[in-house]
Design brief:
By secondary structure, the protein is mostly helical. The chain has helices spanning 12-15, 48-57, 59-69, 75-79, 99-127, 129-135, 137-148, 153-181, 187-211, 218-223, 225-235, 243-248, 252-263, 269-273, 304-311, 323-341, 344-356, 361-381, 383-389, 391-414, 418-436, 439-446, 450-482, 486-504, 513-518; strands at residues 87-88, 91-92. Strands 1-2 form a two-stranded antiparallel sheet. A hairpin with a 2-residue loop joins β1 and β2. The longest helix has 33 residues, at 450-482. It is globular and about 65 Å long. The protein starts with 11 loop residues before the first helix and ends with a helix.
Length: 522
Amino acid sequence: MQRSEPAARPSASAAAPDTVEESPLLPRGSVDGEAPPNAPASSAGITWSCLASAAIVCIAPLQYGYHIAELNTPKKIITTCDGGGARWASLPRCLPMSDAVFSVATSMLAVGGLLGSLAAGWMAERWGRRGALVYNNLPFVAGPLLMAFAASPAMLIVGRFVSGLGAGAAVVIAPMYLSEIAPVKYRGTLNLLNQLSIVLGILAALTVGMLANSGPYWRISVGSGLLLACMHLLLAAFAVESPRFLWSRGKQAEARTVLRKLRDTADIDDEIATWDATAAAPPQADAPKRSSSDGAKPSDSATPGELHAEAAVVTIFNIFRIRRYRQPWLLVLLLQFGQQLSGINTVFYFSSSVLERMFSSQLSGILTMMIGVLNVLATALAAPVVDRFGRRPLLLTSMAAMAVSVTLLGVGLGLGLNLLAAVSLYLVVASFAPGYGPVPFLLGTELFDMRAAGAGCSWALAANWTGTFLIAVAFLPLLNAIGEWVFAIFVGALLVCGAVFYVYIPETRGRTIEEIAQSFKH
């Protein structure tokens, strides 16, 4: 794996605007102020049109977050009939099942998510970013219906699997869309809406679950995701298609119209000029050789096989065979798989049991809810930071703080120091949410050019779902075998992954996607 310079500088043409001190005035129609109508798009802020499209698309990752947490609170009333075996509206009041079967129902979301994420790249290239997300509401409608009207545990499991298909595709396509409609200068800020939507979805599921946590009302909790899917279907027409996707399909006139709307300015030529030829069409093996002066190595050093690979359509089946994409492919796999190896999901698993050691069941429930609130607030705090200080500092600082916090959690649990363990739960979430939570999703959309974006993001989220499933399966056996030393595994993974990211992850702030992709050509 070739090392990428951590602070690789953009080209002179791209760097020039960054040398000018930022004005507090942004282009007309931006959420932060106004500027002359003909301000160049390269200096554009996030306009209301851009923000509206982003907000509509982010209903998709909101649904992902909701389905992740929808079974957390109502587990007891789903599996145990508090009113006996009487039926409710011709449906059973509960679905008696063992903990093992309920674990299958919970983990089935990850199985569906894995398949959905692998299909998402094809969907995004076939129907466009917005179009794919519209079609993706089909499993988001079918899954909640199956769960809400489940007459058996098997039906609940199938519903979770179907919802997982939608969840897997949503968190691949939505970050791609956000990165492609965002101004370069604010790409990180806009992309953080993806992670913010996820944690808001988790908080919403916990809230609905707590309010509907009695009798047969768990069906309302698992069926409420249907409302989000209907909301997305109603609003999707008001979001624009990604202009970069339109450009890549030869629809230049439509792409220009959409970009003018997103930037609220007619001067968009500078931004379009940064879109590399790879955004328009795959390079051909018999294409003219590019000189080294345009940032790429001369093609006369490439073998015929490499030229053929460069000319091929990039899919999930060949992306790792193409040399220019191999290193970013490995990095996004480790970013997403490593995120799960940090142990963040086990922290949420432990939160209720740790807090119940010190507080009443009712108070511990409220404090557990506060962990969800902290998750939202800490994620929101990253928005003004990610485009000011960069992705690398945010990612590496977050991982270092997590290593310390997870260590304290393991020590507190191992020595029976309940107060230390409880405080450590909040510290782990506060460390994870602004950095290691959103940055892997952001970098997954930045390390690939347009040709490989769909396939690369599909693999990244497939790694995330695989890690989620493996940790869910292996955590309890490991805990029973080695006790609290299991947290040492998470700390070790954080340190190893942090070292790899320090060496190989480039800084992407303020650089176009094409400039970032150039740093991986060799």
